[in-house]
Amino acid sequence: MGRVRTSAFSFFACTFLTAVVAASCSQTPAESESDDNDNGNGGTNSATGGFAGTGSPQGGVAGTGVAQGGVAGTGVAQGGAVATGGAVATGGAVATGGAVATGGAVATGGAVATGGAVATGGTATGGAAGASTCMANPTPQACGGMAAPADGVIIDFATYTATGSWGVSTAGDLTGGTSVYGTPTPTTAASAAGIHITAMVAPMGYTGIVFWFGPCVNASTFAGVNTNITGSLGGAVLKFQVQTHADYPVDVANTKGGCSFTNCDTRWSECVGPTAAVTVPAMPAALPWASFTGGKPTAAVTPEGLVGLQFQFECQTESMCNIDVTIGTISLMPAGT
Q1: Separation between Cα atoms, residue 269 and residue 205, nearest integer Å
Q2: Which DSSP letter does residue 154 get?
């Protein structure tokens, strides 16, 4: 009889140890969200600090798993999680009627994910999956107001790279990057002469390109902007927008923008940079700050805080618009011109 008891105990111990080891090995590290400059950028399938949907939260076995720390009475412990130090995590309760078996050891290393509650039935209740970081009524960011280059050059396309960055900081250049948008997005090819932009835009459609500045620039000692645009709009209208700090929607992640908005979905209509219509060819187009109007909430250009330049091509005809233009060096107009 003593031998039979020893076999039963060994069988129970092996079974329990196997369950604990299996539960510990099944844990998966929490995925982290990827971060967009400005420019709202989607998220990942899992929230930082917990798994969403059908995944298991860190620190325990969700849903149909056996609660770590012992054998759960007559059945499955709902949401039972391994807490740091051997205590049941907040929010994870053993199912009614299921008592943890005496002698069950909590698996080492299981911790509840930071910011995420233990799942009930397999759904994390702590983080949002793929959620945007945009929040309504954000606090306006500060504009550093770096002085514009003394020569007034904003973008010399001789410094343009394949990734869309431009400017050489060690040479005293203004630096920044490029974003394209619309349906379809335009095709670009840069050379020392400028950037060549092509696109076939559907009736009432649009496409565009943004040259965003690395710093917030103070250009108050200048009178406007010069650019050289050649080619054909193919029936489209070109709208040239100065992106100002005052009219740019707050982007907390990139510490940019002074325009607070009431709704994330309407931030680009609540916050609008002053705009001017430009004819092509324009060789060069000298546009004083007063040429740019219609900004929101500030109608006129506030040159002490510039964050970018935007060129938008709008097809306002009943047929396709074949955009084929080249934008040359962009510079600031000296005061008094």
Answers
A1: 17
A2: E
Indicate the pairing of strand 330-334 with strand 206-218. unpaired
> Please, which residues have CB within 8 angstroms of residue 132's CB and are 6 or more apart in sequence?
40, 41, 42, 43, 264
Chain-centroid distance, C-alpha 295: 24
Task: Indicate the residue type of 243.
Answer: Q
* DSSP summary character for residue 170: G
In angstroms, the CA 178 to CA 190 distance is 12
132 falls in which pLDDT band (50, 70, 90)? low
- What is the chain's alpha carbon radius of gyration, rounded to the nearest angstrom? 30
- Token couple for 196: 């060549």
Place of tokens 């539960």: 23
* Residue range 79-114, pLDDT digits in tens: 444 334 444 334 444 334 443 334 443 334 433 333
- The model scores a pTM over 0.70: no
Provide the 3-class DSSP secondary structure of residue 6: helix
Euclidean distance between CA atoms 11 and 214, whole angstroms: 66
CA 324/CA 201 separation, integer angstroms: 11
* Residues 301 and 295: beta-carbon distance below 8 Å: yes
Query: What is the spatial distance between Cα 72 and Cα 57, in angstroms, rounded to a whole number?
Result: 19
Question: What are the domain boundaries of the chain?
Answer: 1-133, 146-334
Q: What CATH homologous superfamily does 146-334 map to? A: Galactose-binding lectin (2.60.120.430)
